[in-house]
Amino acid sequence: MLAYQLATMIVLFAFLSLVLRNLRDYQRPTKFLSKGPLVSVCLPVRNEQNNIEECLAGLLTQEYKNFEIVVLDDCSEDRTAEIVTRISNEDGRVQLFHGKPIASGWAGKCHACAQLAVHAKGEYLLFVDADTRAEPALLGGALAIAMDTKCALVSAFPTQITGTFWEHVVLPMLQFLIVTLLPIHQVWESKTPAMCAACGQFLLFSREGYTKSGGHRAIPGSFHDGLQLARRVKTSGGVVRLFDASQLMRCRMYDGGRAVWNGFTRNAYEGLGSFGALMVMTVLLTGLFLMPFMFMIIGLSTQANWSALCAIQIGIIIFIRSVQAIRFGHWRSVALFPLSVIALIAIQWGSFWQSVFRKNKSWKGREYIG
Questions:
Q1: Please, what is the angle between helix 275-289 and helix 2-25, to 10°?
Q2: pTM here?
Q3: CATH (residue range 25-263)
């Protein structure tokens, strides 16, 4: 047991080193453009009457001036189209298109985005979600990265706004997974599609990169469009770049525990890609980030000679979470971390269960037959 605890401590130190390297590589924009090529901001919307006005307000305040906003109303059943029409009449940079009825075999967002790509006129295509809120420097900063690095795709993870208990527990784990487990520099340095990360809430493509990857038409049934498109960009020879948009963009992704569960189980297993990856992730999360807390309890109750090593392991884990909280916020989630790990494992296995048994998926008022 002493050897096991020592090995666990050494591996955690290795992950701490990776986290510190990642926080250096995962940079915020330092250059901001105000003019350049036309950017088409592509916004697929369905039943977003509570989000769309605030989303468009942020996009319309961009300091980068050469852009259009192309909105596709995906057969909304609320006032979404009415709100966009009013804003479009007030500001000619906003254009509203009405989507076609969804075709068999398509996921709703991919179906809408594929139509948006046809309407968009820009040299660059930026796909964003209606629940995001952009700061004025967002577009200029992201485009500067795209042009300076000549990459096909630039993506970023917004600051996740959390309001309820389970949102505090789960949503900060998005940044944790990226910054703790993935060598971020390999996203753009490695040509291997597996070394990839992207967020569907912010995808900035060069027109050429989007076309070469096949775009959303190449992944019609995907519920994890960000990651799948990033992999296709790499497969087609393009470069994917990540940057830290935590000060430039925010998002209230889900509202409440049920929405968190339904949203993440919809696509978590697709993001992992295979049962083998699910097993590796489960063992990694359990062995490194959950068992030290359990062994600490056992060690203290039995006065084991390896208890001190467990204390060091927990200290490393708390430090990893704390340096991420300094960068990204979510301080209250640090104390909830063991529960966050348990919730993440449950979500991944719940998503696998749904995929294996081909359970129908319901999203945005649509039923998808498994």
A1: 110
A2: 0.92
A3: 3.90.550.10
